[in-house]
Queue: 2 jobs
Job 1
Amino acid sequence: MTTLEKILTDLGIRPDPDEKARVLQGAKEDQDAARKLAAWLARQR
Amino acid sequence: MTDPTIFDLGAALRAGETSALELTQAALARASDNAPLHAFADLFEKTAISQAITTDAALAMGQDLGPLMGIPIGIKDMIDIAGRPTRAASRVPASPALTDAACVARLRTAGAIILGATQTYEFATVGPDESLAQPPARNPWNPDRITGGSSSGSAVAVAAGIVRVALGTDTGGSIRSPSAYCGVVGLKPTKGRVPNDGVLPLSPSLDHTGPIAATVAEAALVLDTLSNPGRKAASGSLTAGAAGLRIGYPRHWIADDPATDPAVLKALDDAASALSLAGASIRLVTLPDYDMFETAGALILDAEAFGCHRDRIREHAAHYGVPALRSLLRGMGLNRDDIANAWEAAQILGARLDETLSQVDLLLTATTLAPAPPVAAFRGGRAVWTAMRTLPFNLSGHPALSLPCGLTDGLPIGMQLIAAKGAEDILCRAGHAFEDATDHSLQRPARALP
């Protein structure tokens, strides 16, 4: 189980597989954006 | 013929040509005529009429609370009204608010009539979502197009002429984008100018409360009523004109984005010309890439929104609409370093805005890069990206004003002016001068739906 899946489980959310994939995709997009921002910041420093 | 403004209505009220009761009954009748637009989640017929009767009695006794006295106003259903659950368009259970939000209390003190709670996207997140308990508000210019959100009902109530002004909240553009899509004026104040006490939080660092109005002068009047003490009046130099104002135009923020509708770029160019003809000096300025503003802002918003709703989701996940829940869960995987980085980026980007705004009085950009997209694109809980230029100023805290600057295919286009923090007077002065120089703010949709 991934960290994101564990958070969903902890919240008591059990979406159907399609919806679960969409939710995890959204959260992953935010994590990717955070990495992109960190790279941009590193160039600014 | 143009609709009477708050100032016209106030003059008629004081001349004995109308009464607060008549104004309130007329607003309720317009709300009823426009019921298919779903601008209001709740209309407070009894309490509004009772308040209007009390107001008329006070006026008859010579008690004058100022220009908002007897004026009906809508309140976004994210803002507490004593005795009523703030439902935020959600099926998630809510208890009645014990007191009015601070902004509602200030309106009541000024004698405004609280007409009803206006529709919102669920918890001010995303929409429209047709699966919620109440249908979403509909755009009076074309009901097949979205209203924008999340202050959807407030913008619709003003655009349809039900009220002259309604309150909204704005975390990433939620006052300004529906104002742009519905052809009205939206004013997001400087961070901290208007208290958020009693407003449901979405992202406390980015949340702002402010007015949506038919004209800039009316938005300024309401903002001054809502503002904390010691702030420069937004209406302080309203009629000073555009002459002498220095306006920076970061045209690249619009022209370089493939999401931009050419009609929006043309409308912005035309707006720059109109302000120039009115005496402002326009210069092209370069701002940092928009993407980084949006990335930093979205990360903070998503992390805080998840934090605000985590406990509620744990208890009531099944009551949330699918799009709202999906949106609120985006931030669940972000960690402390991610948020620290986003704030560090916000500091850098905000400083660049401050630096530019030390060389010009205002910035001019679009509110949204295209007119309102079709409702059909959002059906089935689909996520649709609507490109906007609003979030940077939630992140930086600068005041920003959206106002109509044209139509394309019968749909409104909104321009956005941004001023230095605390300079709402300059913002409203320029906006008012633009309204004077053009006829865009006079354009109104056909009223009731068939």
Job 2
Amino acid sequence: MNKVELLAPAGSLEKLKYAFLYGADACYIGGESFSLRANAKNFSLSDLKEASLYAHSLNKKVYVTVNILFHNEDYSGLEDYLKYLDEIKVDAIIVADLFIIKLVEKLGLNLKIHISTQMSISNYKAVEFLSSFKNVERVVLARECHKDDIKNIIASTNLGVECFLHGAMCSSLSGRCALSNYFTLRDANRGGCAQVCRFEFPLCNLKKEAIENDTLFTMSSKDLSMINYLSEMISLGICSLKVEGRMRSSYYIATVINTYRLAIDDYYSNKLTSDKILYYKKVLDRCANRESVCQFFDKDVDYSSQYYLGRCEVSNQDFLGVVISYDEDNKMVSISIRNYFKKGDSVSFFGPNIEGFDYVIPDIYDENLNLIEVANHPMEIIKFKLDKKVYKDDIMRIKIN
Amino acid sequence: LSKILCIANSLDNFNDIIKKDIDGVIIGINNLSINCSFSLSIDEIVNIFPKLIGKEVFILINKVIYNKDIPYLEEVMLKLNDLNINGVLFYDLAVIEIAREINFKSELIVYQNHLNNSIYSNNFYYDMGCLGSLLSSELTLDEILDIRKKTNIKLFINVYGYVPISFSKRKLITSYFNYVGDKKYDNKYFLKEEDRYYPILEDNLGTYVYDFNIIDLDYEFKILMDNNIDYVILNFNMIDDNVLKTIEKYISIRNGEVVLKNDLYKGFLYKKMIYKVGSNE
């Protein structure tokens, strides 16, 4: 049986390295042009090359989003860009505008193509149409598909089927939404989405009188979290499980990818118990700043999948620090601070090479080994005694009970 | 000359419209059409078809297709294949696949509201055997004319009506009222943003949001005709007022009457969108 792919977002080289380090099998990334998330940092041409080389050195994969819907003016440079992606041997490109399928063929490139969720593919006939192109390797289904839809599509095609596993949801069907265009003049389908579905509006009746209520209307949906359905997703035969979030932090990527890595590995070794799922869910919930549910996988959604509490996205302060080094002789760890902590705080360490463990912070020292009261300057380096061995880039966070 | 196609808002409206000197109609079909308040069953379309002699007839199949819809979609397309309709306006790629399988005789017209923005996507669909396409309502006039110059596909442009701007499978109005514990009195409301009111509608398939104003490209119709745009669409979905008057206005323009440049709502025709903001950090 092929093991399902864990596919991570990466908005920068640093995040890509975190994603791979913490267990992703593949990453999807965007270049500086032709990619949705136009306002993310994105990858320069040399970054793309480095990402591809780095992924392949780990025997992992990298997919590049070329997923805007092109206007005439956007075409310039596309052919050279595709040739470059082919030359640096990225494993696939993710496209929404289907003309690229034929363009890749016309240019004689070896690029494999994944069809973006922007096309809202939701049925086996559409997949059959796409399978007639020899360079199309995979479809990313619409997030609105029920598990029965996914199952039937997989049963009727040889193409790989990728589904979303975790992260933010659009309220509308991808590709069928131009709210951003019409409310803010920012083109959603060229990467400028202003997330109008998260705005609040007075809802008015047919006489254009506002409905009187303390809660304003919003289309905002809760995030997606499929940890409770992971086993079912894998057993459907999905080839790749995708985590959303190219604009998310390294901590978020590390936590989410690490958690799903553990859960997927548990599944294949028959160790994914309900207790473990419960714990993984807690970790994922702590890491995000919005509520998450399973959305359309097992039902038609109702108000419980919607978000009516305004944009109360508080910044996450669970992420306390990153291990810079570990001195085995003195059993002393050096940590780069991310959030406030002090002596006596209960924390957890986790990382790709260690079993996660809890710890109570002992005396804290600065870099010159002066005793300090608290760690409260982000990016400053502190040290403390730690008996268990940890590695560079392991993460220290608040203990999750 | 560009041909004028109309989408009616009701059966009565449809019966009035077909008496006018328009070139054709676009008819919604039950359970397969969205953004279309008037639709018929396939059998009703078969029955009504003889009344439409002299008019071009296009069928609208633009809902999101799920697996469970496929048998019905196949049945409908087989029946349409026996009628001499001019074409099917479609959104979902399943329609192209089924058309191939049944050797569909009528034209396929790509009708993907926001997706079709360039010479390149139009040429792709033309090569796939689609002879026509609706251009996105988010294009500027210059972009439309540029596409026209560089493609052979028949081009359809929405010149009148409320532009649909989003579709969600979620029942957003019902959810809201359930959440706040209030009663939903209607399936249509408005989202208020500053002094603009965007219609929001809900049905059994989900929720639709429309632009706040009716686009009316009357002055531009002449430019579109002069530049060989094949079809213009007057869409009366959600519109009850001045339907016949509007049709007559467009017929007059088609027949040579000059309309001056005006302040009617033109959507994105003269507005360019942005997509990169700030310093890209």
